[in-house]
Amino acid sequence: AERRGDDTFTVTLTGEEPDQLEEVAGTLTTELLRIPGVLGARKAFEASREELGLVVDRDRARRYGAEPRVIAAVVGTALRGRSLPRFQDEGREVPVRIRFRKADREDLAELETFLVPTASGRLPLAALTDARPLTAAPYIYRVNRKISRTITLDLAEEGREATRQRLTALTGGLALPEGVQVAGRAQRESFENDLSSLFFALGLSVVFIYLLMGFLFESFVLPLSIVLTMPLAAIGVGWIHFTTGRDIDFLGVVGIVLLVGVVVNNGIVLVDTIGRLRREGMARNAAIRMATRRRFRPIMMTAITTVGGMVPLAFAESSSIGMSYTSFSLTLIGGMTSGTALTLLVVPVFYTFFDDATAALIRAWAVVSPLARGSAS
């Protein structure tokens, strides 16, 4: 079952030492679960794995003149391999990779016999390192270049706001070891902060697209006929999410930002064709009709292929792809459908309106300018 964003509270620990963070996280989780209204806790770092670690003995390495980076390079070459310059064979380039035999790589006893170059000569790896079993997380998450550990708390519906306040007070008054920091916030607050950043990026993208079209068309009036088609895509986005019963999540907003740069392509192609036909001597209305007929098929083919590519993603199960991209794909499908269909109708209307407005301003300026110069003289 999916949980709404306001059902959870996230606590993030940051620091330099992963072992210290895990110890603090374990103690903190126990304290958080004692708060009334907290149903359970999920830690993103629970899925650890056993691995064998080779720890360099710095005293022995210093005594024999061995550098840790050389030891790491030898072990890396033995286990993972290293690429060598490509072999030239009658005009063909053959990739070459050097690595120890599989039998030598799978046995710890064989691993410890690897010879490492030092200032005292070649020594076996066992003379410079100690093998220790370690428990490590499969992934290392970082926040502002510091290792982070995240605890997600599930909150009961009754008294949820009071529970959030108690959690915020607890995380704000913790006595933590030096170097460890904690931040707690509701998932809804985190989502709203992310959304505000995305909407800011959306506004910037609209401004940059408008300025770019202004330079390309050598006019800052005609691009308005294209920019005003962006809300047309919002009609399809809202319609498809309403009919499917899906909410617009974070990835859906990412799709809207992407849609802004995609949906204007049809208008750019149409306005550019109209301008080219007019420069060839064709009347404006005739150029609009001709451009619409010429560009109809390419515009529709582009939209259909884009929508068709998103359809499998819209129906894919979230478990099969790691996370749900349904809202993202639905956003592009709905936005491209309505944006393309309405662009062919609205862009010619906006183009005519702004072209007439520009001509009217030029005529008005031609009348006002001589009068202004005459009054000045």
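[next item in queue]
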Amino acid sequence: MEDERRHRRIDRTFRGLTPSVVRTAEPAEFGRTVCDRLVDRGLYDSARFWTVERSGGALTLRARVDDGRDRGSTDATGERGRLAEIAKSAVRTTELECNREASDHRPDAADGGRPNTDGRSFAAVPLTFARTVHGVLGLSTSHPDAFDRFEADSLEELGTAIASALAAGERDSETGARQTNEVPGQSFGEDRADRREQQQKLDRLDSINDVIRDITQNLVDASTRAEIERVVCQSLVDTDRYRFVWIGRPDYESETVAPTAWSDAGAEYLEETDISIDDTETAKGPTGRAITTRQIQVTQNILEDPDYRPWRERARRYGYRSTAAIPLVHGDTLYGVLNLYAAEPRAFDDAERELLSELGETIPYAIDTIQTKERYQSFVDDVFDSSGVGIVILDDTFHVAWVNQAVLRYFGIEREKTVGRDGRRLVSDRLKHAFAEPEAFADRVVATYADNATTQEFECRVEPGPNRERRHLLHQSQPIESGFYEGGRLELYYDVTERKRRERELREKNDRLESFASMLAHELRNPVTIGQIYSQQLPNETDSEAVEYVAEAFDRIEEMIDVMLVLTRRREAVGERSSVRLAEVVREAWEDVEAPEATLAVDVDRSIQADETYVRHLFRNLLENAVEHGGSGVTVTVGGLPSGFYVADDGPGIPPEGRDAVFEAGYTTAAGQGGTGLGLAFVRELTDVYGWKCALTDSASGGARFEFTNVEQEAGTN
């Protein structure tokens, strides 16, 4: 995991560094830029930047940056230390040199067998371009797994980009020097024509050098491969040095070269030109050979070169007399071929071919960088852009790196005006104004940027406005602890508008139901009370059994009213709590249960704080449920628990998959015997109101056991 995190940091840092290198003019300046960035990002403890003198190959230290930590008196990274020695070796071998044993504190033969006491690993990166070492980048780090294969490959790519910039600077210096010095061994009078030819050559190289510099700058700013190819073609033609420029890619299925970009001038030439990559005559030209050899190929005289016969007459009509094909290769990948046509024969001398070869290395590097970014962006878009959850990704400087379509829709904003902006300013200047409480929203979100170790969650409401609707959102955010945007922040916005609507409707329904239940209870209690009173005043000669049935019916109706109020009004329906002795209430409830053959065992001696009426209802419902499902001869036991009580029977029990359903209102297996399905629903609601915990499990005999815990008990009771 640590290696992967370091690899991602290396990739992000190096790719972000390359544009800075290309834009910088002086070696000392971009040497300082490179070293500063690599050390500041915590990848390396020290960085050194040397240039190589053309005469003698001596190293000149241009930049030196350390992380500021005390490493003792040993100058292991100084000009005469270990890193300088490795740098000299890199110049000799033109290959990246690493000493990874340093982190193990092991002696090194090149160091006279002396142990490396500061515990660091070293690497020297030769800055090689067009087979010339222009400088060395030296690095040291205490990371135990530094300079593995991935890191070495990445450093070599970075070295190529730096070397390209160094080479461009050296060309500028050489061109200026040549223009101010005479050619040795010649006088002004001896060979004026040669001097004029030499000056023209220098002017031509200077012009090419300028256009390559401009192209390099444009490559940094380009956003697509097509834009890179178009800029290269048109820029080269605009110098008037070349009559026509185009880029083609090999199509291995059809075995032809397909043009992908071309300059405006001469575009008709391509319509009549067929180039193949097979064994036929149309594969023997410079373009086909460049694809095969992956080296620059030149036809210095189109009218005389026999390999150019298939296109000679066409080239004659368009005024082309020489041509060069430069393969665009990065790593192991051929990205295409750059083709240039000049109006004079023998236009491509050694110096010009060297410049074009360097351009041929810069172009595919830029294409690879853009394609890597496009692949990553495409992956992110495919996975997250269709999500209904709004996603904002902030980088480690809290600038917006990416947003998906849901965020744009929720806030009525545009992607091009959002990505790249500072997150703090985006929230304060734009986003907060979409919310019902703008300042509260801004303060809470921006606060996490100052303390990126925290997670956050809160609900907020977006008000309607241009390109947005009213929405209720759940905001969640957290730090990004790994991956490409490590050190940044992830913000999510869940649309909870529908949930809020359902909650509001449910509250309104519950309010209406509670109002109706209260009204119904009030309307029923009066006639029930009257009926109970008059049933007690009936003459003695009235059938006593009938009177008992009437009285029980009225009592049952009153109980149902109580149950209905608990189910609808919950806590408001329960009166003040008082001391309730469980054993007494259980026996009273058992008297109301018609089960002459059933047995009740009471093994609890404690008092609880509750409303006695509702506790009696609870026990009556549990006892009736036991008799209903356990049979007429069932035995029901009520016993104590450390923090409550239980009711168990020896009936058939309730299977685990059906235990949740029995508590639902309306659930009954005795509808034909007058069951309402409210009994156990009342039990669950009453336990919730009192804050008890209710669990349904198996009894010791395999029947049902209802356990009630977290029950408020009176002190001194067991």
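[queue empty]
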